[in-house]
């Protein structure tokens, strides 16, 4: 990936998958990283854009380590991926057969990275441009796409498929055509997705997932808290800040935050919350300090007194039992 780097043709929203992936590559350079991802490294590690984003991330985390006198500053994207890995593997420990549907999958490499076994089918869903880009990169580095032959990166699950779908549109019928079975549990993973759609589209998405899930299914999702979403939008509108175009356009792609009453919101969409944690708590489990988001020091100083703590929800839920009237 050089002068004609195909990743440059990605939309602004799909580009965010490259940025979070670059942060994961930066994390992998630590001794004892929160997450290692060899496939991701070979898929995108030679892109000039990715190298620049990764180096910036390394510089910022090293600066924070020096300023705060801490050993290991890790990006939130590595922490959230590690958390999701652990949830998936825990689910796997009690289920041999299920399907994993990764929504807004970006450059997620779990089918090649986690030992899920032959009874687990994985479906990635993302926008068309990202799905095509990822497929091309997987083929280029000899990752296994079909369950035949010997490959440099073998599939570690039963089967994998990448579906190009807009999750704010009518995506469910297309998924159902590729759906292995409605009788086995589903694990829905939606990391870093919901804030790219408005609240109405997010609720519709949650309801659709619940409608085709068996009772023992699981949802792993992340979302901005309301304070962080509101602060990001004021940041964009507020002319007082020195403008960094990249960060401005990044925040401009956000469309919603999670309503304050997380359990109530999820219940209204067919999901019962099993755990609800803040990113600023989860990282402690991995013995690392969380990287400050670029510009958030200034944002916190200005907006937290009014809006409350700027943070990020990590939620695990199961389908609400359906009550049948007699
Ligand atoms: C920040 S990235 C996260 C990628 C991945 N989940 C991860 O954690 O590395 C957001 C992803 O959501 C996808 N996305 C955003 N809106 C979408 C939509 N309406 N339909 C399908 N995918 C969408 C983007 O293309 C992008 O790949």
CATH level 1 class label of the largest domain:
Alpha Beta
How many structural domains?
2
Which homologous superfamily in CATH is the superfamily of the largest domain?
A: Vaccinia Virus protein VP39
Bound molecules: S-adenosylmethionine
Order of strands in the sheet with most strands: 4-3-2-5-6-9-7
Query: Uncertain regions: pLDDT < 50 for 5+ in a row?
Result: none
Strand content: 15-25%
**What's the CATH topology name of the largest domain?**
Rossmann fold
Q: Rounded to an integer, what's the Rg over CA atoms?
A: 19 Å
What is the number of E strands? 9
Pfam families: LCM
Keywords: Methyltransferase, Transferase
Family: Belongs to the UPF0677 family.
Protein name: G7814 protein
What is this entry, summarized?
The protein has 13 helices and nine strands. The chain has helices at 12-28, 38-44, 48-68, 76-94, 110-113, 128-140, 172-178, 199-211, 226-237, 245-252, 262-268, 279-282, 296-307; strands at 73-74, 98-103, 117-126, 157-164, 186-190, 218-224, 271-278, 289-290, 312-319. Helix 5 (110-113) links the parallel strand 2 and strand 3.
